[in-house]
Amino acid sequence: MRSRKVLLVIAFLITWTYITYYILLRSSNPELSKSQFKSLARFLPHAQNENIKSEKLARNLIEFLKVRYLEDQDVPTTGTTPKISIIAAEISDEVADVAEKVTPARIPTQTHLANGEPVIPILVFACNRVSVKDCLENLVRYRPSLKQFPIIVSQDCGDEATKSVIQQFGKQVTLIEQPDQSDIKVPPNEKKFKGYYKISRHYGWALNTTFRVGFDFVVIVEDDLNVAPDFFEYFLGTHKLLKKDPSLWCISAWNDNGKANVVDTSQPELLYRTDFFPGLGWMLTKDLWAELSVKWPKSFWDDWIRHPAQRKERACIRPEISRTRTFGKIGVSNGMFFDKYLKYIKLSTDFVEFTKINMSYLLKENYDSTFLRRVYIYPLVTYDELRRNLIAIKGPVRIQYNTRDQYKRLTRMLGLMDDLKSGVPRTGYHGIVSFFYNGRRVHLAPNANWKGYELSWS
């Protein structure tokens, strides 16, 4: 019904333009007075120009409607991954007047500083939380350079109160608005998950819009995150790893098991590799987005990205102590895990000069030859011995698990997150989950003959 209305409006505009153009031509005859002819001659080029614009606009809108409405008639009900719809972004240059009404600000176009360092935009996803103010104040406070770290806030939902809060930051941030506010067709059995469909659509549009400027890296932040004082320094010190090591595909500021009682607060500089995609403040490259965007899912993008078909055995970097902390209990996930885990995550208060640290130990060949080898040399202990502090020797130890149920039971007793995604435990690397307990480093690890992750464990 909506598409018919839009087509009728387009048809009326085109017809009106042609009639006007025709009348002007018919009126341009020898019987007109000289002054009338001159007046019409002045309007004729304008009428021709408007006619060309109308035709061009009509073509673009018709193409948009074809993709928007014809593709939506075929909503998959299985696990297939449809292509993302990016028509709105593609036609924005063609309909500049319309685009300016939707996106009044322009994304900064400088992609590198004079010294060759990359400009790394911070892409903040917002919707209808006025508390985005806390997130933006935090980012602006710790940002070392407006030029190197432009803050781009992408807003969905069209909530005016939230938009007003974002605009209060003036030139400190750039606001862009997701133009497609149409309803999303959702399979009947997934209607309660419609919010996840909207989030996925928003992510796809915003990342396409930002990366097409030419940036090499983008850092994604949700509107309910606060960041640590060295948040920007963290990404400055680690971004080169993504270019140097093809076995890495993201840098995350988040530790899923980052509660204060299971991290070593004396080592804020400590970083790990992890097979689990953490999210919650993370960096990706334009090459990775080029790979993912062509098959971007219609919903549940974070679980989708953790699937082996997307991960391809690549890892992320994550910190011992989180550089982000969520304050968003209310959202589409209805506070899942918040009261039990998320509100206890420790946010680092130290400033570590990551740019002055040699990060080569995190490269796969170096990390695997040291970390993995050491873990299986550490003494094997039981949970009871660890809990009761009955271990005579000092230093790191290892607790072994062999089954999914055993893993879940141990993590619950240790106060760690017990869920697995695509068979991968949170913070796990080769199945090993590292944490701090009773003053010592502990590695919860599978046996030394580990063969890989099992999807059936999820």
UniProtKB/TrEMBL annotation:
The keyword Manganese applies. GO terms for biological process: protein N-linked glycosylation. The cofactor is mostly bound to the substrate. Its main location: cytoplasm. GO terms for cellular component: Golgi membrane; perinuclear region of cytoplasm. The keyword Zinc-finger does not apply. It comes from Drosophila lebanonensis (Fruit fly). It is a single-pass type II membrane protein. Keywords: Cytoplasm, Disulfide bond, Glycosyltransferase, Golgi apparatus, Manganese, Membrane, Metal-binding, Signal-anchor, Transferase, Transmembrane, Transmembrane helix. Belongs to the glycosyltransferase 13 family. It is found in: Cytoplasm, Perinuclear region; Golgi apparatus membrane. InterPro entries: Glyco_trans_13 (IPR004139), Glycosyltransferase_13 (IPR052261), Nucleotide-diphossugar_trans (IPR029044). Pfam families: GNT-I (PF03071). PANTHER family: ALPHA-1,3-MANNOSYL-GLYCOPROTEIN 2-BETA-N-ACETYLGLUCOSAMINYLTRANSFERASE, PROTEIN O-LINKED-MANNOSE BETA-1,2-N-ACETYLGLUCOSAMINYLTRANSFERASE 1/ALPHA-1,3-MANNOSYL-GLYCOPROTEIN 2-BETA-N-ACETYLGLUCOSAMINYLTRANSFERASE. Pathway: Protein modification; protein glycosylation. Its EC number is 2.4.1.101. It comes from the Eukaryota. This is Alpha-1,3-mannosyl-glycoprotein 2-beta-N-acetylglucosaminyltransferase. GO terms for molecular function: alpha-1,3-mannosylglycoprotein 2-beta-N-acetylglucosaminyltransferase activity; manganese ion binding. The chain crosses the membrane at residues 7-25. Initiates complex N-linked carbohydrate formation. Essential for the conversion of high-mannose to hybrid and complex N-glycans. SUPFAM superfamilies: Nucleotide-diphospho-sugar transferases. It catalyses: N(4)-(alpha-D-Man-(1->3)-[alpha-D-Man-(1->3)-[alpha-D-Man-(1->6)]-alpha-D-Man-(1->6)]-beta-D-Man-(1->4)-beta-D-GlcNAc-(1->4)-beta-D-GlcNAc)-L-asparaginyl-[protein] (N-glucan mannose isomer 5A1,2) + UDP-N-acetyl-alpha-D-glucosamine = N(4)-{beta-D-GlcNAc-(1->2)-alpha-D-Man-(1->3)-[alpha-D-Man-(1->3)-[alpha-D-Man-(1->6)]-alpha-D-Man-(1->6)]-beta-D-Man-(1->4)-beta-D-GlcNAc-(1->4)-beta-D-GlcNAc}-L-asparaginyl-[protein] + UDP + H(+).
